[in-house]
Structure formats: C-alpha cells, structure tokens
Give the backbone structure.
Amino acid sequence: MSLSGETPLFPFINAYARLPEHFFARLAPTPVVNPRLIKVNDALARFLGIDPAQLATPEGVAVLAGNNVPEGAEPLSIAYAGHQFGGFVPQLGDGRAILLGEVIGRDGHPYDVQLKGSGPTPFSRRGDGRAALGPVLREYIVSEAMAALGVPTTRSLAAVTTGEWVYREGALPGAVLTRVASSHVRVGTFQFFAARRDTDGVRTLADYVIARHYPAAREAPNPYRALLDGVVARQATLIAHWMMIGFIHGVMNTDNTSISGETIDYGPCAFMDTYHPETVYSSIDARGRYAFVNQPAIAHWNLTRLAECLLPLLGASDEARLAQANEALAAFAGAFETASAAGLRRKVGLNTAQDGDAGLVYDLLERMDANNADFTLTFRALCDTASDPTKDADVAKLFDTPAAFAEWAVLWRERLAAENGDAIARRDAMRAANPAVIPRNHLIEEAIAAAVASNDFTLFEKLNAVLERPFEDQAAPYTSPPLPHQVVAATFCGT
Ligand code: AMP
Ligand code: MG
C-alpha cells in the first residue's frame, strides 16, 4: 500500500460503485496464505496508467492476490442472472470475482480491474469463490492471444498463485487472475433486473451502458433501440471474427455475453485444429449447443433475451415495442453475413466482391472438413501459394486426399484472375488475415501441466511470447498441430 501522498497503485474512478446498491454487493477479497507472482502484463499495465514494476513488488502482489485492498478501491461483486444452456437462473452474479474499480486507459476509455478467484461472495451459491491454477493460466493465454489476433476481448493484467489448494476433481493449486474489461456488464446483468420486473433497474443499467459504451445512442430518436442496435452489431462482428480463426467459446450462456462486444469468460474455450464445423470441446456441452457452427445462431438467441429485457423501454405500446425489438434483432443476420463474407474474402485474398465468393470459400471449407485439414495451417499455407503456385503441394498435403485441394485451387485461380493487384501484395494481405499460430489446446495443456506439477512457468512464458505475434512465421512446436497422442478431446470449465 502506498502511503498517503504517494501516487496510488491504481487511479480508480469507481463508476459502478455509484450505481444503486442493489446492483452489487460490497465486500473485500478474502486473503490467501502465500501469494506468489506468476506474471504481470507490462504493456497492458502501462496502457492503464499503472506502473508494472510496482505491481510486481510484494505490496503489488498482495493487491493482486486480494490480501490488500488498494487505496481508492471500492470493491464489489456484481449481481447478474442468465440463461445457462437454455435454462434461466434468476440469480448468478460474481461468485468468485471482485471488481476493484475502473481506471482510465490511454485511449481515454474506462476499464474494469477485477480479481477472479478472490474468495466467496454473496453470489457464490455452492462454490468456493476460488479458481484453480490451470483455468487461470488458460484464460491468461487465450485472452491475450485473442487480443493479439485483433479480436475484442477482456484482457489479463496479472496472475498470482495463492499457496492454497482448491478442491475440484482433486486438490489443485489455487490462483487469482486480474482481469481487465471494457466493462463486465452482460446480457445476464439486464436479465437480473428484468426477471424482478425492476424496470427502473433496467433503465438505470441501460443509461449506464449507453454512457459507457454507446454514447451515440443518447442522441438517437429512440436511445434504447439504438443501444440494442449497437449490441447486435458488435456481437455480429465479434462472432464473425471468432469464425474466421476457428475459436469456440464453449459456454455462450447469456451471462457470458458481454454488452460491450468483447469475448468474455474463457472457460472450456478452444481453437479447432482440424476443421469440422460441428466441433465441441466442452465436456459439459453434451448436446453440442455451443458447437463451432452454432455460434452465430446462439448469439442471436442471446440477443433476443437482451431485447426482451429492454422491451419496456422500446416504445409506447406493446405493438411498437415488439416491432422495435424485432427490427433490431433482424439486423443480426445481415451484419453477421457482411462481416463474415468480408473476413472470408480476406482469408483467400480477394479484394473485390463477386457473387459466388462465399460459395467458393465454403467449397474449400467443405473439402477441409471431408479431408481432416488443419484450419489454421491450411489458410496460412494458402497465403504463399497466392504468389507462388509451386507451393500448392504444401497446402494439398494437409488434406487426406490432396487432389481435393488441387481441384479447388483451379477454381480459386480462375476467381483470382478477375482481381487486379500484385501477387506479393495479395500474399502479404492474406498473411495479415491468416495467423501462423493460435493457442493450440495441446500446447496450453502442456504449459498448465508443467506449472501445476512442478511450479514451472517456462512453457507458459514461451507460449505467451510466441502468441504476441500470431501473424509472423513461427517455428515448431508452436505452429504444429497435435500429434495423435497429443490431441485434446475435451476441455473443462474447471470452476
Ligand atoms: P461460468 O460458467 O464460469 O460463467 O460461471 C457461472 C456462475 O458460477 C457465475 O455466477 C460464477 O461466478 C459462478 N462460479 C463459477 N465458479 C465458481 C466458484 N468456484 N465459486 C463460486 N462461484 C463460482
Ligand atoms: Mg461466467
């Protein structure tokens, strides 16, 4: 803790703490036995106006572990509800997370600083309020990789171990993640008030969200409709972005759907290795509700739940309200298709739009599906063939039947002939759209295993460093798909 008069560690503004008291529960984190620093995200700290060196001192680590409430913080856990796998739960809330406050980033926007795994809260239900080391490292790796890939996401500012055990399938080392988000308001936060017929609460939250995330909506003729339009648009582009890189969130419940349009709550998430649209990794998603290919439809379903919450604010009559909600929701499909079509064109090097472009790319995807082609490697190898057709064999060898690619390449080159522009420029543009490295499941598991078994964070550090530059060529093992014995069949929430 800094002595009064010194610069505080975090220049908090405490905006959420000014909302009505029934929006949250005020409480401090629960201290842990023996906090040890795993990592501070130096660049993110500086972006937030926080001195990374100070975070790494024993005083800083005490804050990151929840053993000290930093000067200026007004810690609280946020109340929310949500549909989990389609079933409504009227009370969820931060069961193991505490918002310390918000700080202003270099971009002038406020960011939440939240401890995750910081002890029980009034929303913990049967949970212990803690997080195991594995899921903390997984969230750190994947959220930072997503940021480097250019996908809107919550970030990871720091991770610490607690020196305590948490009990899941067995005893596991405990850890705390410091998460940074544009905000932690979720679709489920609106549902919390709507389920209680608390229209004032819905309105107060909507006004807060408009001011924080959608300021232009305030000037619109119907500000709450404009808010809904904004969330629909951001979710559509977010999900399109996921689909371009093979990301599967795994638990797209409404409480894990951010109003700001960021990817949030990295649980059983995973990147696909071989391309199969029905892929599901999450061990708790037995029916494949959150399979890769279902993500756009699920996002629309979640947005429909948000529209229901906002209904009382959308118009003067039932009819008008419904019409507003339906119009806003109907825009999702077009927004998703536009973002997706543009993303797919970039992936195969098309600068111009023609009818049939989407069909061309879906033809490739179907061939990849039928031939067990690696999603990331196929598109990355395709980049080089754009300037050098002698490299076609490097793509074809990723297909069980190489001819399946060769046939498609003929169609692709016919389409490319209608494009102007230099082949090298096309290759470079494709390389900026098709990452060389993604956080592959087996590499994450290896990094976690070393940390859990022997407190060795070397693999974790190396993986993070490589994933900071996903569009640059990288060496094995980071670019390699798993060998058969390395394939991770299922991921676990680990909560
Ligand atoms: P999730 O599936 O991780 O999005 O979490 C769903 C809900 O369960 C949220 O309200 C979490 O805060 C809560 N939760 C998850 N893990 C724990 C835990 N270990 N202790 C208390 N609450 C938890
Ligand atoms: Mg969650």
